[in-house]
Amino acid sequence: MDMNVVDQYSIRQLSEISGVNAVTIRAWERRYGLLKPSRTAKGHRFYTADDIETVRNILIWLERGLAISKVRPLLNNEQLTTDASNSVNNHWQETVDHSLVLAQQFQREKLEQQISELFGNYPLDTLASNYFLPIRDALDRQSRQRFGGQAEKIFFDSELHTDLMSRIRHTNSNNNGERVLLLALDGQQHGIHALLLALALLEAGYRLHCLFDACSLREIPYIIEQSQLHPAQSPGNNSLKAVICHSDSKQDIPQLEQELVRAATHARVPFFLSGEWMNITPTLRNLEGITALEPSLRESVATVSQSLRKNM
User: Fold this and answer.
1) What is the pLDDT of residues 192-218, one digit of tens each?
2) Are the C-beta atoms of residues 45 and 6 closer than 8 Å to each other?
3) Which of 236, 233, 292, 229 is nearest to 260 (CA)?
4) pTM (2 decimals)?
5) Which of 102, 123, 127, 91 shows the shortest CA–CA distance to 17?
6) Domains of the chain by range and CATH?
7) Is 253:210 a contact under the CB 8 Å cutoff?
């Protein structure tokens, strides 16, 4: 046995292991010099266990709030320098403030460019907690406090919605993983959180059937059944393997808990709930046969993946 043989991982495998999409991994390599993959004879990148550890360390620094441009000097040093400490305190606030100015000025092209750069440089879970949620909270406050704030909020949400839908359509068309049904019960116009969850699932390799409007919960088993009866409509297994019902508002559905349990029982696939409605109606977290997903996108995807592996 050759003791010098090193395990090799493709960029797709590194993405699956780390939860960081391939586009961001390439940006970390090319733009910031954080990774230096070797190449096969045909020019394909391959990574080692050391690279996996590097990505994990990068994620640790990003979770502390550090800007990606400040990470490289710290990868072999666990202590924050004064400059890096200031960056932790200021980076995301400055980013949010800049976006607020662009929204206030209705600068569509510049806002679009900023969002695109953020997607290229940061994992989705990092963006959700440090950028998307804080800026939408700030826009909510401004919409209540001053004239014009509501228009700015609608402008930002519209631009973000358009961007997310474009990414979802592109990624979904290229995925051939297990199929998941995502129902956003708030409707498409209020579905930013649902869209972020959809993109996180797609980045993990799943293929989604998205219903961005409220259908009857009693129709969920029918959708599952039809997907199983007509598997030949697309390559691979077309049957749905899981259901996620998402809502960020209270649902005016008579006997909601009973209807959800009934839908989950008849669906006969893993059944999940996500969104703020579980905080509005806490009893939803304890329904028989239904798993509540945590707010973290990374944790939500991990929970879905673990459940599907157990269900195989």
Assistant:
1) 889 999 999 999 889 999 887 767 888
2) no
3) 292
4) 0.85
5) 123
6) 11-74 (1.10.1660.10), 82-166 (no CATH), 176-310 (3.40.50.280)
7) no
